[in-house]
């Protein structure tokens, strides 16, 4: 929230709270702006730190050196060589996120960008589609990805290396969770060796480095996500529950329950993942049918 410009609003809200209060502050990282906020809002705080070191045996870390002009084509090689159904790709800027999203979509990849310029509705839709396996690649900045927790994330790609090795550790820690294996791939320019040295020193581990030109070209079609998302213009305010959606799909629509994935119900909308091969049928049947005796607008995302 600080990086998105909400520092003034945070302090303004705090001004309305009693002087005698308990203030708890949680942060995955602890840079200078967080320290400054703490000094403004807390008195004699007790600091509790958890060491942010992941089991290095669970995350395979690979670094590839290349020039900036070769980055897009190098990324294409890596995606073909390291196929995965769920990928988070980190960039350092919003503009870079948008550029890579357009580049990958033109190649046939199911990729979506997540950054601060998106309104809340679009942000929610992107996160829902990635979490329910309707989108293969999520392209995000560190700010946009704060609090992102995706189960079974197979691959993290650092399209841009961060300056802070702690941020790097936080990024790659999105994979290799719950005792599962994960892979983290990072691209760096020859002029960024100092970043690599900082990560190596922070982890007390020598990096495994390769050169992109050394990679054998692998020709592979971009994988299609297993699911597709239907957006229903009804939610909790309409007394809609996940069971109502499941019943409408498996009953009137005749979709097997095994082909229905994650169902997310918010106040005014509901998102349901349906197996890609059944998505058009499900969309048509929901449009023509009813949910709890009522008709609602339904879109395919």
What is the topology?
Layout: H1 7-15, H2 32-41, E1 59-65, H3 71-81, E2 87-90, H4 94-106, E3 111-114, H5 120-131, E4 137-140, E5 155-158, H6 165-172, E6 182-188, H7 193-203, E7 209-211, E8 227-232, H8 242-250, E9 260-265, E10 270-275, H9 279-288, E11 298-300
Helix pairs in contact: 6-7
Structure report:
There is one protein chain. About 30% of the residues lie in helices and about 20% in strands. The chain is built from nine helices and eleven strands. It has helices spanning about 5-15, 30-40, 70-80, 95-105, 120-130, 165-170, 195-205, 240-250, 280-290, and strands at about 60-65, 85-90, 110-115, 135-140, 155-160, 180-190, 210, 225-230, 260-265, 270-275, 300.
The CA-CA distance between the termini, in Å, is 28 Å
Per CATH, the architecture of the largest domain is: 3-Layer(aba) Sandwich
Helix amount, in percent? 25-40%
DSSP, total strands: 11
Oligomer: single chain
Order of helices and strands: HHEHEHEHEEHEHEEHEEHE
- Catalogue the unreliable spans: none
* Structural domain count: 3
- Residue fraction in strands: 15-25%
CATH superfamily of the largest domain: P-loop containing nucleotide triphosphate hydrolases
* Spatial order of strands in the largest sheet: 3-4-2-5-6-1-7
CATH topology name of the largest domain = Rossmann fold
> What value does the average pLDDT take?
88
Radius of gyration: 22 Å
CATH top level of the largest domain is: Alpha Beta
User: Based on CA inertia axes, which overall geometry fits?
Assistant: flat
Q: What is the helix tally? A: 9
Q: Which sheet architecture does the biggest sheet show?
A: 7 strands, parallel
Question: What structural category arises from helix and sheet content?
Answer: alpha/beta
């Amino acid at each position: 929230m600080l990086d998105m410009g909400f520092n003034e609003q945070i302090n303004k809200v705090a001004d309305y709270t009693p002087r005698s209060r308990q203030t708890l502050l949680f942060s995955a990282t602890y840079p200078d702006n967080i320290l400054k906020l703490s000094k403004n809002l807390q008195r004699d705080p007790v600091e509790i730190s958890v060491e942010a070191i992941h089991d290095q045996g669970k995350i395979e870390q690979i670094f590839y050196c290349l020039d900036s002009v070769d980055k897009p084509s190098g990324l294409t090689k890596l995606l073909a060589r390291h196929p995965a159904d769920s990928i988070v790709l980190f960039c350092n800027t919003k503009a870079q996120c948008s550029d890579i999203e357009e580049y990958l979509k033109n190649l046939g990849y199911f990729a979506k960008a997540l950054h601060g310029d998106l309104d809340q509705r679009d942000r929610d839709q992107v996160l829902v589609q990635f979490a329910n396996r309707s989108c293969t690649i999520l392209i995000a900045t560190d700010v946009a990805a704060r609090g992102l927790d995706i189960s079974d994330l197979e691959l993290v790609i650092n399209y841009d290396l961060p300056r802070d090795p702690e941020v790097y550790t936080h990024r790659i820690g999105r994979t290799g969770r719950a005792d599962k294996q994960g892979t983290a791939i990072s691209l760096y320019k020859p002029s960024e060796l100092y970043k690599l040295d900082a990560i190596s020193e922070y982890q007390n581990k020598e990096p495994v480095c390769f050169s992109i030109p050394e990679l054998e070209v692998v020709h592979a079609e971009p994988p299609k996500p297993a699911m597709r998302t239907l957006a229903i213009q009804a939610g909790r305010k309409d007394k809609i529950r996940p069971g109502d959606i499941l019943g409408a799909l498996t009953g009137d629509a005749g979709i097997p329950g095994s082909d229905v994935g994650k169902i997310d119900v918010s106040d005014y909308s509901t998102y349901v993942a349906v197996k890609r091969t059944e998505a058009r049928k499900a969309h048509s049947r929901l449009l023509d049918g009813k949910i709890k005796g009522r008709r609602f607008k339904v879109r395919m995302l």
